[in-house]
Amino acid sequence: MTTILYTELLKCKRASILWIIAAVIVIPSLISFFIGFGSWAILDSPPKWSGFLVFSQSLINMLIGPPVFAMLASFLFAREYQEGTVHSFFLYPRHRALFFLGKLCILLLLITAIIGITFLISLGIGFMFTTTHLPYDLFIGKVWELLKIIGLQFLLAPIAILAGVLSRQIIAGIIVGIVGVTSSVILMIASTPLQYSVYNPYSFVTFIIDSPLESSLMIRGFGTLMTLSIVCTAISYYHYVSSDVQGSGV
Amino acid sequence: MEPILKTINLTKTYDNHAAVNKINMSIGKGEIYGFLGPNGAGKTTAIRMMLGLVKPTSGEVEIFGEKISKNSFKAFERIGAIIETPGSYKNLTAYENLDIHRRLMGISAKSSIEETLDMVGLLEVRNRRVGKFSLGMKQRLGLARALLHQPDFLILDEPTNGLDPQGIKDIRHLLLDLVKQRDITILVSSHILSEIEQLATKIGIIHQGQLLEEMDMEQLRQKNRHYLDITVSNDQQAAFILQENLSIVDYTITELGKIRIYERMNEPMIINRTLVENGVDVAELVLNKGNLEQYFLQLTGGNAVV
Ligand SMILES: Nc1ncnc2c1ncn2[C@@H]1O[C@H](COP(=O)(O)OP(=O)(O)OP(=O)(O)O)[C@@H](O)[C@H]1O
Ligand SMILES: [Mg+2]
């Protein structure tokens, strides 16, 4: 299994997807920087800690995260088909289930790394600009939220994985991610009542952070997300492991 | 002796259309089996089934005496394969691509990478990204991947695709060397007979999913020798004259008044004159250049890409 994880990472070396990951980390960090800088330059007062940490997190969670993580997911799962390496890939003396599991692990690792690094950078920028100590409660609260975001984003990914595995095209997952986010934005703009919009997992992941939901809505939303996630993973797994292999090369 | 590969009524049907239809073939140890068929004949589909990549609709495949499925890991360790145009990770160098392969195959010796790159003539470009490779170089890298773990059985689906004539020759020599040195067995598919004619020891011709013919290369050559058909008034006398006056011994009397000779075929005028001068009338003299390519075309209904 370590070999699978290691080679899976090696395969990402110099991949163009890394630029996108870098952009995902840099953009919220830049915004954090301007929050701090602007606070001094315009208001001539130190920015508040909460401003830093909330902003970059919700940006990732609501807008940037879903499409980018969808792209990562379908990249990981569809690349062998698209690059024509699928034949040799499935001729290794290793069970396809392990490859599937390995890719899931790498996806979780990348999501965690992206969100974690962005958080650390925001924290660093915060130390640069603020004059007060970081309140302990705020820090712990934010770390807890961070973990929730990682978990929720990871639970969203199987929808894109399924698209990637079924179509054997990386683009399919990207489209799913973009459509998902767009739908959540539309629901928000149309101020759809929560009891309906929680059914959209892309909306649900944004609610859970900003404003605590009442428990019936919580169950409804989380139940939908969880069910979708498990069903998509199961279908993807089945398809990945047992369908005929015919990717074309070049 | 137990064959290295055996297929039993191997069949794959796609919406009522049989891409591969009840193929029974067998490849013995040390053989180079030329799997020949025009585009769309079913070569790739058959090969995918042999490797457990595609599930047969019916029938089965045995390699090294083991029934093949997608989890035949023991067999996979001993097989090297190229299927269609082999892909590689374009963001990685040739070396890194083989390194991934080495790790996943569970080979510990790192030196195997450079050795194999050298074998296929890619050592100098080992640190170049595969995205910048030409088609022929990618093909060689695919071959390197198939060879790296020193397989006992090589399955190569159109390995010369995209190679220039020198490249085709290089690969042919490489494969012949491998057979000599390591005693491996090879299945190589092609849609061009001349490409595997000088390589194969046995040929199987597949057309529209069916294995039309399977024979030793030697047998095939015999079948397709050039010959001269002569129609004469007296075959016995003619045979005697051919033997005595022209020292032709390789001939047969195919039917009454017809002689088929396999010697001195480029001298039909001399043969004609000699026969006539010795009192045998010659009604017809036909040179048959039955070459293999034509034979192949004949079998596959003439729509092969040559
Ligand atoms: N997944 C599929 N779905 C439907 N038909 C298929 C599929 N794969 C192959 N076929 C059909 O099976 C037949 C055999 O295809 P195959 O690729 O095995 O031929 P081939 O001998 O390898 O040809 P080529 O020389 O062009 O590589 C073709 O008619 C093709 O259209
Ligand atoms: Mg083919």
Q: Give me the Rg of chain A, rounded.
A: 20 Å
Quaternary structure annotation: heterodimer
Average pLDDT rating of chain B? 89
* Shape estimate of chain A: globular
Instruction: Please tally the helical runs of chain B, counting DSSP H or I stretches of 4 or more residues.
Output: 11
Helical proportion of chain A, percent range: over 70%
CATH fold label of the largest domain in chain B: Rossmann fold
Question: What is the count of DSSP helices of chain A, taking H or I runs of 4+ residues?
Answer: 10
How far apart are the first and last residues' alpha carbons of chain B, in Å?
36 Å
The biggest sheet of chain A amounts to: none
Whole-number tally of structural domains of chain B: 2
Main sheet attributes: strand count, strand direction, barrel closure of chain B: 6 strands, mixed
Give the H and E element order of chain A: HHHHHHHHHH
Shape of chain B: elongated
Strand-pairing-aware structural class of chain A: mainly alpha
The CATH class of the largest domain in chain B turns out to be: Alpha Beta
